[in-house]
Amino acid sequence: MAEAPTEDLKTTALHAQHVAASGRMVPFGGYSLPVQYPSGIMAEHKWTREHAGLFDVSHMGPSFLLLTNPSGDAEADHAAVAAVIEPLICGDIAVLKPGQIRYTLLLNETGGAIDDLMVGRSPLFGGALYIVVNAGTKDGDFARIEDAAGDKAKLTRADAEQSLLALQGPEAVAVMATLAPGAEELGFMQYAPFDFAGQKIIVARSGYTGEDGFEILVPNENAAKLWDALLSDERVKPIGLGARDSLRLEAGLPLYGHDLDETISPIEADLGFAVSKRRRDSADFPGAARILAEREGKLSRQRVGLIVEGAPAREGAEILDASGTAIGVVTSGGFAPSLGKAIALGFVPPAHAEIGSKLQVSVRGRSQPAEVVPTPFVPHRYFRKPKAS
Amino acid sequence: MTTKFTPDHEYIRVEGSTGIVGITPYAQEALGDIVFVELPAVGKVLKKGDEAAVVESVKAASEIYAPVSGTVTEVNEELTGNPGLINADPEATGWIYKIAIADAGEIDHLLDSDAYAELTL
What we know:
The structure holds two protein chains of two kinds.
Chain A: H1 15-20, E1 24-28, E2 31-36, H2 41-50, E3 52-56, E4 61-67, H3 74-85, E5 101-107, E6 113-121, E7 128-133, H4 138-149, E8 153-157, E9 162-168, H5 172-179, E10 191-196, E11 199-204, E12 213-219, H6 220-231, E13 236-238, H7 241-250, H8 277-282, H9 288-295, E14 302-308, E15 318-320, E16 326-336, E17 341-348, E18 358-363, E19 366-373
Helix pairs in contact in A: 2-7
Chain B: E1 2-5, E2 10-15, E3 18-23, H1 25-31, E4 34-38, E5 45-46, E6 51-57, E7 61-65, E8 70-75, H2 78-81, H3 85-88, E9 97-101, H4 105-108, H5 113-119
Antiparallel strand pairs in B: 1-2, 2-3, 3-9, 4-6, 5-8, 6-7, 8-9
């Protein structure tokens, strides 16, 4: 139960807020962040599923990629900046409409994931992308993007001067609309700038919980003001990293460094949707040969969801087949507060990946039953705009 | 009746030759919501310091060690269906197991309540 020493940790602009709220601060991705507040992970998790949870995710890596010499033709400039980032990733960025965001993966030459990230097309300017990467990988990611950009585009990091907040849950939209009127008009995976306290904030309808919600980029000097304003609404409570992890696990969303790493391809990770059709047709992304072959069925392992009977199977636990032979490993596992049972993500050969497959997990040397189930474990409740007829 | 403590935040309440073992209020607070308890088998022989049980919170598993040597005589089956008892009432209904103390001398080496309180200041 020893806590890690707090060596050279960065703090976010909301550190005083977390301490004042008695957040239990832990090191995470080089930052001191709250793992939970006094109400605890279970209560925070459930509050987010029922109301609205507020998260400090300022450890992540927001940035902007801007064309150095835009022509002024918005479509041509977007095509040009998309052409800068696309060789690094498997997503179709060229096709994005203004204000649209896409989840994609930064790949190495063998098709392994260097990171998973969000890329958005500016709703205002041609030739500008909003890119958010993970905390643990941000320095490497940014260097890679800068290298690819050369003198065609300039990458500006926003992680030092700006804070990133997430407001998640079914009541998030009503709360957001009071502070940023019009945010309720955003569709899932759309973003737009809004005014808050005399400065621009960027509000994206996205998140990492499976719920409707928003991720908000705010200048550091206004971060505490926005945090406090959101919390002044009784529908909102602060939520720590512990519940962030249990919420994303229930939503079946991968955590980089655990369910994704440089050996794991998007197809293995069950993220085939992130390999865009246009990119598949032209086979012009890193590791295309492997990834396209895997799509055709040449797959040695794939990510599955498991419901585990008994004790939670944590990261690193072996997955066994019905006869007890080791066939894979758990990459994320824990207790699902919404389901009241243990769940896990892990990798197994395709022969064992079918829904309903009866497997086992080894926990402290004992085998426990585990069944392959569809993910998400808890249905996503993202906001979908009714299609215009 | 006396209650002693380990630096690992177990308590043992001594009633004659039997000890009732659980985790302290400080420990349950630090662990957070307990969602699963792995109980020892009745009859299991433990040496002082052996892993006796495991409590799982949402985030992590934590081992519970035997504060003294002895044999497990009873386990708290209530925890199987209601592991949250450890959070709600760690020192009474949230007890984990009972042990027939093999060597009463080992009790003397554990922390008394004042020494334990000092440890968790």
